[in-house]
Specification:
With 506 residues, the protein is α/β, with parallel strands linked by helices. Helices cover 36% and strands 20% of the residues.
Length: 506
């Protein structure tokens, strides 16, 4: 009777109350972390990954639905829910036809680097859509706090969004964590304090699996990125940001995005079957537990929500595949450029026909094409034929073809369409055969539509989430609308995903 009376007075009964909102959203991205790293090394995880797999809502068949599967594109997708066709983040690098120059996903000549040597800064201005952090900021009148941390500028900036209070990354020229004048007039005092003891210096001369860190500053700052030492610095900086910004200590939901970059550098150099990738996965498990414990000290064990994922996977090293009688190899990007250049010179005469080529994309010199009054679609088709004639090219798409909606109609073509922005997309995009990559040298790469590059972990854990294993197909794009539902805010503007209702606590 007393419970009924209390319910009547309150106007709601506890059983029907909505789950409380978290004090902190912790979005964790591990750069280049294939889903099968969770299963291959499961018995050895004892820390944060073990906690996620035991307590979280684990999606075993989550994938990216776009190409190219690379860092900037993945990081722009996770908290926006948008495909590159909508977000405008089509690659790490591209040729901007409006500016007439090569740009990166976060380059911004109007900003300055803060905390490092004099240089241009970075910003989210090329991201055309909102993120979860932006929507929280708008819903809360700017009061929620949003921060991004990584070794890479794009990995710190893109998940945090336009309205972030700060994004910080590691500068290999100075050995400092830095930011941009987009966020501040000068580097915050707490970041200066963090940088003051030279956090990278303690790794000088240290070894990891026989790899000794150099004594020279610039070499040290670069080399430690390809070891767990880089991730250790990210985790330490994330803890400092938690405390300095007092995240999760007020009535609003704050956001901290943390991207662990060293896994990517290790994976590129040694490949997914290496001892080094195995060991850095175990180190990541340890660091995640350290971060979770720091968050719990700050906000309490029941007051935060975690989403864990990766920005892409990676292909096996071609030589490793060859030894096990599997296909694979490298296609030198210079040979792609040469094939297009030679074909167009032969057809139309001399000139610099290629404005740039990165990963799977080729940008033609549209200025020259216009100057000669050539038909752009015809020139693109000629370039496409030259690439298609190369060994180990599965298929080729042109700008005009994508503009008109032409494709082969299968899942690969749909991923190409999802990744194609009509103003920023390339004139020609190629898809290599499975296990072949556009790369040079040793090691391996990623970018393709195939599972080894697109199948990644998606795990939710914490406030409002029903744990368990979920085997139905999901997309990384589903993260943002699911978070928006949990946080009771507007879905980010470019989101194309679905709400993962199966994990929501009623």
């Amino acid at each position: 009777m007393k419970k009924i009376l209390l319910c009547a007075l309150a106007g709601v009964c506890l059983a029907g109350a909505a789950p409380k909102k978290p004090k902190l959203l912790l979005a964790i991205v591990v750069d280049q972390f294939r889903y099968d790293y969770l299963t291959r090394f499961r018995s050895e995880y004892k820390g944060g990954l073990a906690r996620l797999l035991t307590k979280g809502a684990v999606f075993t068949n989550a994938r990216y639905i776009h190409v190219p599967a690379i860092t900037a594109v993945g990081h722009s997708t996770i908290l926006s829910g948008a495909t590159p066709s909508i977000s405008g983040i089509v690659a790490n690098d591209w040729y901007d036809r409006e500016e007439g120059v090569h740009v990166t996903s976060v380059s911004d000549a109007k900003t300055q680097l803060l905390g490092g040597k004099a240089a241009a800064g970075s910003s989210p201005k090329r991201l055309l859509v909102s993120t979860i952090g932006d929507e929280l900021k708008m819903a809360g009148g700017g009061k929620p706090r949003v921060y991004g941390v990584s070794l890479k500028d794009r990995a710190a900036i893109l998940p945090a969004g336009h309205m972030a209070d700060g994004a910080f990354w590691f500068d290999t020229q100075s050995g400092n964590f830095v930011t941009s004048s987009f966020y501040y007039k000068e580097l915050p005092g707490w970041v200066k304090e963090f940088n003051s003891p030279r956090p990278a210096d303690k790794y000088r001369g240290k070894t990891w699996l026989g790899h000794k860190m150099p004594e020279d500053n610039v070499k040290l700052f670069t080399e430690l990125e390809a070891t767990p030492f880089g991730n250790e610095m990210i985790e330490a900086f994330a803890e400092r940001a938690l405390d300095a910004a007092q995240l999760g200590k007020r009535e609003f939901t704050d956001v901290l995005t943390v991207s662990f970059s060293s896994n990517d550098y290790v994976g590129h150099r040694y490949g997914p079957d290496s001892r080094e990738v195995h060991e850095i996965a175990l180190d990541t498990d340890r660091l995640l537990e350290k971060l979770f414990q720091a968050v719990e000290r700050q906000v309490g064990a029941d007051n935060y929500l975690v989403v864990f994922t990766a920005d892409h996977g990676v292909a096996p090293v071609p030589e490793v595949n060859a030894a096990r009688k599997m296909p694979g190899g490298r296609i030198d990007p210079a040979t792609i450029k040469a094939a297009v250049q030679n074909a167009l010179v032969k057809k139309y005469g001399g000139g610099e026909w290629v404005a740039g080529n990165w990963d799977l994309a080729v940008y033609l010199n549209q200025g020259l094409i216009g100057q000669l009054k050539l038909n752009l679609a015809e020139v693109e088709r000629e370039a496409a034929r030259a690439i298609q004639a190369m060994p180990h090219i599965s298929r080729v798409y042109t700008l005009q073809q994508m503009t008109q909606g032409g494709s082969l109609g299968d899942t690969v073509s749909q991923k190409v369409a999802n990744g194609f922005h009509l103003r920023r997309g390339p004139d020609v995009e190629l898809i290599p055969d499975a296990y072949w990559m556009v790369a040079t040298g040793t090691g391996t790469g990623h970018a393709s539509p195939y599972s080894y590059d697109t199948h990644v972990p998606v795990i939710f854990m914490g406030t409002g989430v029903r744990g368990g294993q979920y085997s139905a197909s999901a997309a990384v794009n589903d993260i943002a609308p699911t978070l928006a539902t949990l946080l009771e805010i507007e879905t980010p503007s470019g989101s194309v995903g679905r709400v993962l209702t199966e994990i929501l606590v009623n």
